[in-house]
């Protein structure tokens, strides 16, 4: 038996007895151990944290960024992607049909977690019922570095399919400021006109970056 198997067993026991006592690199070490069963994952965990500073940085790193670390292949990248998606859905789950959204800020809060670190643009839509409860949170489009094309018709068709009374549009600006471009304003105007025709409330168009959030409603553009 390799020397690290005994260490991993002791670490698992420590986690079982007092999970809060486990250090970040040890937690990452245990996670990697579920994928790399026959490797000593402690050096990898420490190297990842040294390079990306914290667990958030590790999960937000692109697979190609750490391909030079020996042993971290497609299996680890897929595992991290799965773990990140699980955490995102955990953060979003309290809003699904259970409570009234007090304002677009709450949508922006979990949207920034999902979109803030992306290196490409994505457009998402939060569809709401009459009580401003979340019916659906869906990706409407994926684009490149500075644009994601979305059709007002597609947004409204999805709203009708969900029997939504209102919706909030969200998209991200990768690595930039969360302020609207001319294209963003034109799209907002087109969607607003289409929403009126269907008697559906277009509550807000929110733009997020990794550190900022912008609301067109709060800036009186809706």
Tell me what you see in this structure:
By secondary structure, the protein is of the alpha+beta class. The protein has helices at residues 3-17, 24-33, 42-52, 55-60, 74-92, 104-115, 152-161, 182-197; strands spanning 122-128, 134-142, 166-172, 201-208, 213-215. The protein is elongated and about 65 Å long. It starts with a helix and ends in a 7-residue tail after the last strand. 24% of the residues are buried.
Question: In a nutshell, what does this entry contain?
Answer:
With 222 residues, this protein is of the alpha+beta class. The chain contains 8 helices and 5 strands, in the order ααααααββαβαββ.
Strand content: 15-25%
Query: Could you give the count of β-strands?
Result: 5
Number of helices: 8
Main sheet, how many strands, which sense, barrel? 5 strands, mixed
Segments where pLDDT lies below 50 for 5+ residues? Answer: none
Q: Spell out the helices and strands N to C.
A: HHHHHHEEHEHEE
Spatial sequence of strands, sheet with the most strands: 2-1-3-4-5
Helicity, in percent? 40-55%
* Helix/strand class: alpha+beta
User: What is the rounded Rg?
Assistant: 21 Å
What is the terminal separation in angstroms?
65 Å
Shape: elongated
Mean pLDDT score = 86
Topology:
Blueprint: H1 3-17, H2 24-33, H3 42-52, H4 55-60, H5 74-92, H6 104-115, E1 122-128, E2 134-142, H7 152-161, E3 166-172, H8 182-197, E4 201-208, E5 213-215
Parallel strand pairs: 3-4
Antiparallel strand pairs: 1-2, 1-3, 4-5
């Amino acid at each position: 038996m390799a020397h690290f198997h005994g260490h991993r067993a002791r670490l698992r026991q420590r986690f079982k007895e007092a999970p809060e006592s486990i250090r970040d690199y040890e937690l990452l070490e245990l996670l990697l151990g579920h994928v790399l069963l026959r490797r000593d994952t402690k050096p990898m965990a420490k190297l990842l944290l040294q390079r990306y500073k914290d667990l958030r940085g590790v999960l937000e790193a692109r697979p190609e960024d750490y391909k030079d670390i020996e042993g971290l292949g497609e299996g680890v990248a897929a595992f991290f992607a799965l773990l990140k998606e699980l955490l995102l859905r955990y953060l979003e789950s309290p809003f699904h049909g259970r409570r009234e959204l007090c304002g677009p800020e709450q949508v922006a809060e979990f949207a920034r977690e999902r979109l803030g670190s992306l290196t490409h643009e994505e457009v998402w839509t939060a569809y709401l019922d009459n009580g401003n409860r979340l019916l659906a949170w869906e990706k409407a489009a994926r684009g490149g570095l500075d644009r994601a094309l979305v059709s007002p018709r597609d947004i409204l068709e999805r709203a009708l399919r969900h029997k939504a009374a209102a919706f909030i549009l969200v998209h991200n600006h990768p690595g930039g400021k969360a302020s609207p471009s001319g294209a963003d304003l034109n799209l907002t105007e087109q969607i607003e006109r289409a929403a009126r025709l269907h008697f559906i409330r277009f509550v807000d168009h929110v733009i997020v970056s990794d550190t900022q959030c912008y609301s067109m409603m709060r800036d009186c553009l809706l």
